Amino acid sequence: MTLQDLLFSLQKFWAARGCVIHQPYDLEVGAGTFHPATFLRVLGPEPWRSAYVQPCRRPTDGRYGDNPNRLQHYYQYQVILKPAPADVQDLYVESLRTVGINPKQHDIRFVQDDWESPTLGAWGLGWEVRLDGMEITQFTYFQEVGGIELNPVSAEITYGTERIAMYLQGMENVYDLVWAEGVTYGDLHHEDEVQFSKYNFERADVAALRSSFAAYEAEGKALAAEGLVLPAYDCCMKTSHLFNVLDARGALSVAERTGFIARVRALARLCAEGYIQTREAQGFPLLHRSRAVKSVGV
Amino acid sequence: MSRRTPSRRATPRANPRSQELLFEIGTEELPSQFIPSALSDVRDRALHLLKDARISHGEPKTLGTPRRLTLVVPDLADFQEPLATEAMGPSKAVAFDAQGQPTRAATGFAASHGLAVAALEVRTTPKGEYLFAVKREAGRKTSALLPDLLQNLLGQLSFPKAMRWNASGVRFARPIRWLVAVHERKPIRFSYAGITGNDRTYGHRFLSSNKALRVTDFKIYVKSLLSAGVVADPEQRRSMIVGQLERLAKKRRARLVRDEALLEQAVYTVEMPYALAGEFDRRYLVLPKEVLMTAMKEHQGYFSLLAEDGALLPVFITVTNMAAAQESSIRAGNERVLAARLADAKFFFDEDRKRALVDRVEQLKGIVFHQKLGTVYDKVQRMIKITAVLAPSLIIPHDHDRVLKCSRASLLCKADLTTGMVREFPDLQGVLGGIYARYDDEDEEVSDAISEHYLPKSAEDSLPISFAGRIVSIADRLDTVTSFFAVRLVPSGSQDPYALRRHAYAVIRILLEAGLSLDLRQLIEVALQVVKEQGIPTDEDADQKLYYFFVERLRYYLSVVCQIPEDLIDAVLSFSQDNPFNPVDLRHRAEALQIFKERAEFVSLLIGYKRAVNITKKEKYYDDNVMEGLLKEDAERKLYYSLQETENRVSSSLQERKYHEVLETLVSLKEPIDNFFDAVMVMVEDEAIRKNRLALLTKVRKLFRRYCDFSVISEPIPPGKLVGV
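YS: structure for the whole thing
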């Protein structure tokens, strides 16, 4: 199965289970959780189901294209089910069958993992799912996001698409993965890894990053105060990514690091609170259209 | 065979119905480390609730897997025990008037218990005839009580970390998905967290068809689960795993590295254990054994094997959740994961070794120890200075080389924090430093000290073995505790974020268990001075606070580990307030006291001593200058000469730390002291004589005070004298 076929299968599988198939968000993010379809939609009482591919950037994980397993840019497949259905684990296992992993022939384990995102003020409990010892999915019941306790609780399923594809294709090196017939992952992304590793670790202009961070932070706060929470949240995502680059660049001391994380979190919190207020003012529109999820159900 | 013998029929037959309670909490995969404590919690709380509900029962048992917590209680009584409560009211004479009519005392008493006067009972008591209100509550049917009981039980369970998952808002370690509750073979109807109790359980996630299994009693439950791929009993899984591990080891003529924590984790992460061996590339064997074993254990939970000569084999064993159809692909998958981890480890190891530890010390300037206390580099500088005082004070006779080793180890002990390997495997801090030090051709003892300086990691953990390791461990912790106190970051209540209590206790343990005799007060002063020298503003009272902080840790050790009675501990700790605070010495003093306290004459000595103390304290008399010419009575002269003689003996015994001898000498003063108090009046008119006698008693007090503070020792009850019954 090519990597793109894997993505198609997941899209079809989750679309058939009532998920809105979103497109990736068009800003740099560290995880699919940052996408407004997750971060904002899990807030408040409205039901929501969505799934999407999200390219993620983790500057510190770059290895100049030399390491067969580590990338500073990779693809998550993200699913949000709100409220979390009682059979969510079964749904997940079924999705594995769909992509060609027969659970009776493998050792599939739900291994405890307490998830926390200090920048998003979010935490949840769940598992990392291991397939024959390899972590392929992060499975979390969100408890809090933006410092706000969630009700209802959402289930988040995050597939590591490269890992699963490597398994399915029996590849030892991520760059050898077949993305599409005749085109490898390396053809698409090796050069990105080389260049961005160089940028993240050596070339990024620390002073410029710092001032951008401050500018986006100020803008985000101002926008949130005016009730423009969506652009404010864009600013928040920007600060998060800028922080990640500064971190990779080795520009932050331990104490400073903690300070930056707290600043991103404060902005995330403003956005989360503002978003709930906005939805509330609109009378939580999706609350009364719950058929959108129900009728398409499993 | 169906005919019963008459004798059997005559005995009360056991109830043919199952009087068993079967209860299972079906969950999504629970964190393995929560399960054993959750099971004992379920059991304890069930016992409590049954007791409160007055339901008698047999011995409960628990079983558990990642997906279920199970309780079975046999032989539940059909009914709860009846309850009889009685209250005594007014006397009959008061309760009824001359006509035999109830008075207001009677009606009021009856009403307060919700009874009619006619229902009250008259009983004869030793005080006469009295009214009694007796209420009998018949026991309710057990089956009617169980729904509430189980609901309460579930509500009482708690976990270190819990979550919500549905609209019920209930918190549990992971979502509850089903509840089995069966009594007398029938489901108990109740609900919790939006789930209704039933007689349906579910088998293994992948080995069974996911169809509900109907269970009517414990035997059927265990059997049905087994056929659905679940070994419910953890002990059974444990012995299966051990057997499988041993077999795999034997096949390779290897020895399994027994690791109880790892075994426990395996037991509680699978429902149907199946151990599987895989291999890794031999070229990774160049990595230190500790690194390989940690890489296997920490992330993957793999067991390691040793060859007969103790060398690590390029083999791992993983315990999987079932014997799957494609063993080879499971093996290959696990091998691939481990290979990636070892490749990372090898990369870090090779990178790390490009620079010697000693060249990494400078890099510690980039790692913050604490905002107010500077970087780890600053900490290391402080440790070196503490070591420079500490090591020579314990190395007697002086040995310059050994002192140098200690200071070298202090310099290098934190350098491994800058290595890639420690960032990857933080648990290996210290151990890796030791390994790298050997590669750098550092001295053997220096390398050992680096490996061991984080020991002991807990109150029960073993101490560093090397002398330098002990010195560095003390210097490290003393600096941590002292520096945090200096900047007023002290533990309060249950808040001890920097584990200062643990560090201080470790210092006490090392000093006592290694017999390192020194004045801890002086060392604290040194450590504080070193903090000040770095320009860190410090709390003026830190020295006193630190003294009391360490005193409390020493008190705990003497009491819990040495089993010394509190008053004797007080006696030596009070002594240490104005004498050297030397834990080893104080312990010896207390232990000698403990032995001596058993002796009969010790008691009267104590009484005499206390009289001397009380009288001089009361008169606020502290001068011990006795004029020989003013000694009038025989008894006081005797005491004086005895004192003069014993003072010298006490001094030399103290010098040699022969505490038994000191006490022996002090006890010899019993008679002169007793005689003094019998024959001599202290508070006489003549001021000169009075003062002279007070001075004599002050001499007694001062002499005793050189051993410990005897005034806080409680007098033991003399043998043979009974205390009030």
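YS: worth flagging: The CA atoms of residues 42 and 157 of chain B lie 7 Å apart.
IM: good catch. Also Residues 21-79+141-227 of chain B form one domain.
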